[in-house]
Specification:
Layout: E1 2-5, E2 15-20, H1 26-40, E3 46-48, E4 59-65, E5 72-78, E6 81-85, E7 97-111, E8 114-119, E9 123-127, E10 132-147, H2 149-152, E11 165-167, H3 172-190, H4 196-214, H5 217-222, H6 225-242, H7 250-257, H8 261-270, H9 275-294, H10 300-306, H11 312-323, H12 327-345
Antiparallel strand pairs: 1-2, 2-4, 3-6, 4-5, 5-10, 6-10, 7-8, 7-9, 7-10, 9-11
Helix pairs in contact: 3-4, 6-8, 7-8
Length: 346
C-alpha cells in the first residue's frame, strides 16, 4: 500500500497524506486498508468488512490538512466498509465534526436510535465525539471535511441536534456548500500560497448558515429591521472597541455577536455599509484622536501601526479618503486652529 506523508513540502501550507491499495494483491488489500485507516486517522475507530461489502477490495484516500487549526479535506474512494466509533474509542478525547458529501454509493449512519440513510448527492454532518456506526456498501466516492468543534458547536440547539444531520444541498447555503466542496481541490491547487484557513473558513461558515436556516432563524431575522438594527449597533460597538487589533476579522466579529458571517454582512448592507468601511472609519477616528493627543511631533508611522494599519501607505490613503486631507495636514490645521482660539481667549 502506498502511504505518502509530505510534512516537509514547502510549496504548500497543507499537510498531505495519501494512501492506495493498488500495489497489493486482492487478498491483502482489505487488511492493509483496515490497518492504515485505524492507525492513520486522528481518532480511534474500528473498520469491519461485512458480507454485503465488496470482497475484491480497493481503496484510495487523499488528505490535505491544516495542522494549526485541525481542519482537513479528503477525497475517498473505496469498496465499502463499516466504520464504528464505539464507547471504548471515545476516551481519545477527539471531538471534531466530519462533513460527508457522498458523490456515489449508498449506505447509512446510525447513532443510538437514530438511523439516517445515505444516498448519492447527500451532505451529512457527523459528530465524532459520540458513538456512531457508518456503513457504506459497494463502490463509494465521497468528499470529507474535518470541522473543529469550536467553530460550529454553539450553533447547535441541544440534544435534538446530536443526531447525524442531513443538509439540504439543493437550495440556499446547502447548495453553495455542495458546490464549494466540489471546487475545493481546484481552488487549493491554484492558490498554492494562500493561507489554508482562507480556503477552509467558507466551509464552516456555510455549515453555520445551514444550521441556522434549519432552526428557522434566517428567514425571520432577515425580515426584522429591529433585529438588523441590533446587530448593526453591536457590530459598531465591537469594531470601535477592537479596531486597533490587526487580527480582527468579520468572522471573529460574527462569532462574538452569535451570528454567522453572512448574516453580519446582510445586517451591514441593510445600513448601506460594510465591515471594511466600518473598520477603516473606526481606525481613522482612533488615529485622529491619537494624532491630536500626541502633538505636532507625532510619528505618522507609529500612529498608523498603533491603530491597526500595515504601514504609512495604507494609512495615508485611508486617512485622505475618510477626511479629505492628509494626516500631516490634519495635524497642522488642528494645531493652527487651537492656537487661534488661544489668541482669541487672551
Amino acid at each position: 500500500m502506498q502511504n505518502n506523508f509530505v510534512p516537509g513540502n514547502h510549496q504548500s501550507a497543507f499537510f498531505e497524506w495519501t494512501a492506495k491499495t493498488d500495489n497489493f494483491s486482492v487478498k491483502e488489500r482489505w487488511w492493509r486498508w483496515k490497518e492504515l485507516m485505524e492507525v492513520g486517522l486522528p481518532y480511534r475507530c474500528e473498520l469491519q468488512l461485512k458480507s454485503h461489502h465488496n470482497e475484491e477490495y480497493s481503496g484510495e484516500f487523499a488528505v490535505s490538512a491544516n495542522l494549526e487549526t485541525g481542519e482537513a479535506f479528503a477525497r475517498a474512494c473505496f469498496s465499502g466498509n463499516t466504520f464504528k466509533r464505539a464507547s471504548n474509542h471515545l476516551s481519545d478525547g477527539y471531538s471534531n465534526f466530519t462533513l460527508i458529501y457522498l458523490l456515489a454509493g449508498r449506505g447509512a449512519i446510525q447513532r443510538g436510535k437514530y438511523f439516517t440513510p445515505m444516498n448519492a448527492g447527500g451532505l451529512y454532518l457527523v459528530d465524532l465525539a459520540q458513538t456512531i456506526t457508518h456503513d457504506l456498501v459497494h463502490e463509494s466516492r465521497s468528499l470529507l471535511c474535518r470541522i473543529p468543534r469550536g467553530k460550529i458547536e454553539k450553533y447547535f440547539l441541544g440534544p435534538e441536534d446530536s443526531r447525524p444531520l442531513e443538509i439540504d444541498g439543493s437550495r440556499g447555503p446547502g447548495l453553495l456548500l455542495r458546490n464549494y466542496l466540489l471546487l475545493f481541490p481546484q481552488a487549493k491547487q491554484q492558490c498554492a500560497f494562500v493561507a489554508p484557513e482562507i480556503l477552509f473558513n467558507p466551509i464552516s461558515d456555510l455549515i453555520i448558515a445551514c444550521l441556522q436556516e434549519r432552526r428557522g432563524n434566517l428567514p425571520s431575522e432577515s425580515e426584522s429591521p429591529s433585529r438588523l438594527n441590533t446587530i448593526f449597533r453591536g457590530a459598531c460597538q465591537l469594531i470601535h472597541k477592537h479596531c486597533r487589533d490587526t487580527d480582527l476579522s468579520a468572522r471573529q466579529l460574527a462569532v462574538s455577536l452569535g451570528i454567522c458571517p453572512s448574516y453580519l454582512h446582510r445586517a451591514l448592507r441593510y445600513h448601506q455599509t460594510s465591515y471594511v468601511s466600518l473598520l477603516r472609519r473606526a481606525r481613522i477616528e482612533a488615529a485622529s484622536a491619537q494624532l491630536l493627543s500626541t502633538g505636532r511631533d507625532a510619528s505618522i508611522l507609529q500612529v498608523a501601526f498603533n491603530c491597526g494599519f500595515n504601514g504609512t501607505s495604507q494609512f495615508s490613503r485611508a486617512f485622505r479618503e475618510e477626511l479629505g486631507i492628509s494626516a500631516s495636514e490634519f495635524v497642522k490645521r488642528s494645531f493652527a486652529e487651537k492656537e487661534e482660539l488661544l489668541k482669541l481667549e487672551e
